[in-house]
């Protein structure tokens, strides 16, 4: 019994390792791809600061006050132009068909997200003099308008705008996630953190992660629809990316509250994020969603369509994203978050969610390292400092050099980390053929070894001896 128990434990550990290892590879892939995009986003921020007469060492992860767009319509037009350029470049890279273009495409498609996030925060910054309630209402109106625009964009366009709809949706989701956190982190993560704030930040992190997992599960049914997704259906992927972003920024704030400052703290942060990602992936691997899959199949067979909610009316799903309900009636959205999960492919969605959140959080931390590197070089050369920058364009040139070096190093590295779900059909077929060949050769080697082993030879001799005696 003990031997059987040990064998079972080893088998479970091997299965867990087989699930977590590809997940960590995917996490590293998203991290490096997003870092590549962040490098060039920092260049855009720096150029914007210089063109508007601002010190490029101030507000390095956003646009400055003078370059902030004052009108929402102008902001949207600027954003759509960036998304169009990103879609065209993605289409050109997709025509190549080689593996290195997959990582480059991921970086290019993420590039507009940080642009929109910076533009949206600049737009909302002009209302900083208003009260918190007024700012919250303006924030809500801006995000609702952005969500409506993102869900109105067709998801299926011809070349060279094939990826345009996805880029717009994910980029606006990124901006909405930042807008979601702009007030909450000012409460839970002020400049001076104490024990009470850290505990509150941990609770808030658990809440946004719960919402992110739930929204991802609700969006899984959209992939199984036989009809064309409507505007409400397309809202779920947008909300999912928004909650991934909110979770990533909150995770970075929480981890940074417990680590040292400087490069040592950055290394500690990366190590903690890796452990966190593995821990969440291990938890997801232990979840049994077989009953949920059976329920989803039954609903599809009966021709019923839920609205992204299994046991509650459709209108209740909106209440999760209305802040006042969390204050007066928190049990209403919590019922939604803790109710049963239906849908096909939920577990795969959750694995992808963990990789996305961890990779995005690590890339956010890395963007700070890129800015610190540029600042250190500029300070050593006496070009710029935080108070005065007499040679701003030389500083921007340093940022360009750092972004170029990062791209040259990381893009080839991404070839080794591309997850299978991003492979082209040709690569998937080649991988299946290679795997089958390796398995066939391995089986042949094992059979040969078993035939030549002493145990097998002795067994064959005994068999021939028994046959001789019987004769």
UniProtKB/TrEMBL annotation:
Stretches of the chain forming a coiled coil according to its record: none
UniProt entry tagged with the keyword Transmembrane helix: yes
Segments crossing the lipid bilayer: 28-51, 72-94, 100-124, 136-157, 172-189, 196-216, 236-255, 267-285, 318-338, 350-373, 393-418
Domain of life the protein comes from: Eukaryota
Keywords, ordered alphabetically: Membrane, Transmembrane, Transmembrane helix
Keyword Nucleus found: no
The protein's name in its UniProt record: Uncharacterized protein
């Amino acid at each position: 019994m003990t031997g059987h128990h040990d064998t079972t434990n080893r088998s479970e550990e091997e299965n867990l390792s087989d699930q977590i290892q590809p997940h960590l590879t995917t996490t590293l892939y998203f991290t490096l791809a997003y870092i590549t995009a962040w490098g060039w986003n920092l260049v855009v921020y720096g150029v914007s600061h210089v063109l508007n007469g601002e010190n490029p060492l101030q507000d390095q992860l956003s646009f400055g006050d003078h370059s902030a767009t004052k009108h929402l319509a102008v902001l949207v037009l600027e954003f759509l132009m960036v998304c169009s350029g990103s879609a065209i470049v993605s289409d050109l890279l997709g025509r190549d068909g080689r593996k290195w273009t997959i990582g480059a495409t991921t970086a290019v498609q993420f590039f507009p997200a940080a642009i929109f996030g910076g533009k949206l925060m600049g737009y909302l910054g002009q209302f900083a003099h208003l009260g918190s309630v007024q700012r919250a209402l303006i924030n809500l109106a801006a995000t609702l308008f952005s969500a409506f625009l993102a869900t109105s964009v067709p998801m299926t366009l011809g070349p060279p705008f094939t990826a345009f709809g996805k880029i717009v949706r994910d980029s606006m989701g990124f901006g909405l996630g930042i807008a979601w956190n702009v007030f909450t982190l000012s409460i839970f993560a002020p400049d001076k953190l104490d024990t009470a704030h850290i505990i509150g930040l941990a609770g808030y992190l658990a809440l946004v992660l719960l919402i992110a997992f739930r929204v991802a599960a609700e969006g899984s049914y959209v992939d199984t629809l036989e009809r064309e997704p409507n505007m409400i259906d397309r809202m779920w992927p947008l909300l999912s990316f928004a909650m991934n972003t909110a979770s990533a920024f909150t995770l970075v704030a929480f981890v940074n509250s417990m680590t040292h400052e400087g490069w040592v703290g950055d290394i500690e942060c990366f190590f903690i994020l890796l452990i966190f990602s593995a821990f969440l992936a291990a938890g997801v691997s232990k979840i049994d969603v077989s009953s949920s899959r059976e329920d989803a199949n039954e609903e599809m067979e009966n021709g019923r369509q839920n609205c992204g909610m299994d046991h509650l009316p459709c209108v209740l799903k909106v209440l999760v994203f209305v802040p006042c309900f969390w204050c007066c009636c928190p049990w209403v959205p919590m019922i939604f978050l803790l109710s049963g999960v239906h849908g096909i492919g939920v577990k795969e969605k959750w694995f992808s969610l963990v990789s996305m959140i961890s990779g995005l959080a690590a890339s956010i931390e890395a963007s700070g390292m890129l800015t610190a590197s540029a600042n250190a070089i500029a300070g050593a050369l006496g070009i710029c400092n935080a108070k005065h920058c007499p040679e701003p364009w030389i500083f921007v040139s340093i940022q360009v050099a750092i972004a170029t070096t990062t791209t040259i190093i990381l893009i080839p590295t991404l070839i080794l980390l591309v997850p299978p779900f991003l492979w082209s059909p040709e690569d998937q077929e080649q991988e299946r053929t290679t795997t089958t060949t390796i398995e066939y050769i391995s089986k042949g080697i094992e059979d040969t070894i078993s035939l030549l082993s002493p145990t097998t030879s002795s067994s064959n001799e005994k068999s021939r001896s028994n046959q001789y005696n019987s004769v």
